[in-house]
Design a protein that fits this description.
The chain is of the alpha/beta class. The chain is built from 9 helices and 7 strands. Strands 3-2-1-4-5-7-6 form a 7-stranded mixed sheet, with helices on both faces.
């Protein structure tokens, strides 16, 4: 299920011109085998040495680069820059995305997929509760950074042909003995910078407050499972 948005983005792409393919924010290389089917030289970029070590085990990457995603620059014009659920942690998309577009060969494609869940209860409650319980403690600039769809269209339209759409994926979350499945799903990703800004006892208080209300938005089924809708935004630019 976690790979489906990446595969949907990949299937939406037009035929590529000649050039390398870059998996920007490759993580453990989970999308690498699918990108490898494009039969191009595949480059992976990530900030985590541990993730890059796992990506290396896939055997599909010709080069793996440890670097901040916003600072990375292609050594030669590229056919495809593929960023699956990675760039939302980077700031200043108004600068970053045009910069990436400038690294493409004519006819090359920038393909990006963002989680677009910040306004859903699963994410919004973390922010509202930390602000309520610990005012001023959480620096909102540490959170994910995603513009509105119209802003991406306005930003990229002068650069080429833009594709822009959203899809809501439904995932059945399994029961979890340690808490509500949605809390467990979000606390290690979206809520990580929020929780890391607090002391351990404060983290427990915030988690307890979240647990007290999240079930109203995402009720459990008879077996303790939760049907969890998760929205994704897709942006493609062909230059």
């Amino acid at each position: 299920m976690r790979l489906r948005p990446a595969l949907d983005l990949l299937r939406a792409l037009a035929p590529l011109p000649e050039g390398d393919v870059v998996d920007l924010g490759c993580g453990s290389g989970s999308v690498g085998p699918a990108l490898g089917q494009l039969r191009r030289r595949l480059i992976g970029v990530d900030t985590s040495p541990a993730m890059l070590a796992q990506a290396r085990l896939t055997g599909v990457y010709k080069e793996l680069i440890e670097q901040d995603l916003a600072a990375w620059e292609a050594q030669s014009p590229t056919a495809l820059i593929f960023a699956n659920a990675s760039l939302h942690w980077c700031k200043d998309h108004t600068t970053l995305l045009p910069k990436l577009a400038g690294m493409l060969v004519p006819g090359g494609i920038l393909a990006v997929q963002f989680p677009h869940q910040n306004n859903a209860p699963s994410h919004r409650l973390w922010v509202s509760l930390v602000d309520e319980l610990f005012p001023g403690r959480y620096d909102h600039s540490r959170g994910t950074s995603v513009l509105l769809p119209a802003e991406y269209h306005r930003l990229l339209k002068p650069l080429g042909q833009v594709g822009l759409w959203e899809t809501e994926y439904y995932q059945e979350l399994a029961p979890d003995a340690e808490g509500h499945p949605v809390r467990r799903f979000t606390e290690g990703t979206f809520a990580r910078p929020i929780l890391s800004s607090l002391e351990p006892d404060e983290q427990k208080r915030l988690i307890a407050a979240y647990e007290a209300v999240i079930g109203k938005a995402y009720p459990k089924g008879r077996q303790g499972t939760v049907l969890f809708p998760f929205r994704r935004m897709f942006v493609t630019l062909t230059v």
